[in-house]
Predict the structure.
Amino acid sequence: MYRRSELLLQAFLAGVLLSCPAPTHGQDAPPQKPSDFTEAAALKKREANKATELWFGVLKTPVRNFRFVIELSGNKPNAKGKLRSLDEGNRTFSLTNVRREDRKLSFTLPLTAAAYESSLTHEGTQSNGTWSQRGTQLPLTLRQVQSIPTRKVKTLLTGKLNAIVQTLDIAFVELESGEVYFNSVSQKAGGFIATKEVNEAGSIVFRVPGVQAVFEGHYSDTQKTKLQGNWSQGLLTLDLTLTKQENVPEVLPPTQPKKPQRPQTPKAPFPYTTEQVKIPTADQNVTLAGTLILPQGQVKAGVILVSGSGPQDRDETIFDHKPFLVIADHFARHGIATLRYDDRGVAD
């Protein structure tokens, strides 16, 4: 970093010398003091430290990929930061404990109890580090960019899934690279790794291991713009038509929708104890994250809240409603303990 600063200073000095005005009216230009150069270089460095930086990276998990955009602003090393998750409804999350140094970038995301620690390479434009979240550690590389990179989309298919109690907007994104992803747009849950194949009957088959679902259909028109078929998930089979979309931007500008009013959502202070727990499974590589609520005084009973089909978090969040949180709160106020947990591949 010392050498780079030295080069910047030399370049700055050269620019100043070249731009000095020629003497006029037979008079010599007043000489500049060495302190002038020092103050100008310091000012330039301070301005650079305040500049907004944009970083981009993909957090890869076994069943899902998350495209992250990190926006840093303010004075280094204690900058301010935001994280945009393009595959979670383009939502924006506030970062804390942001440290942007010459050779290090780190921050925490308190909402999900996540942290990122990294070292900078490639003259400070690439960050190689580790994303830690509730005992799980994953590699994450971020690159400094001027704008958000876009993927080369080969085919974008969208549809409406009538899931009995709700209608969900969904999408399959097939990239030029051959990668295929499934997005549950309504639930702001995307980036699920999918596969595409053509079976012996000529039907198009999409498989989404992360939500244990399969779509099988065939084109209903000669232009091959509509796929009619069935969505199978667990014991449920639903009709689904997928329509090919053209000229639809994959990365939308950040939105700040008005927060919906949910008066039934419990609010602190709570007359019970809440603990964050980890639940081992038969698969040693998989640990589920959950919340245990213990009422004050004598515990009359205990209940485990299990979500229905499809990917659900521990609160069974849907359109910002949190039914399981409401139920757990009600039970705790009546002496009943509850345990609720995130489905595999969802949230924590």
Observations:
- The first strand starts at residue 53 and ends at 60.
- Residues 65 and 191 are 5 Å apart (CA to CA).
- The first helix runs from residue 2 to 19.
- Residues 272-341 form one domain.
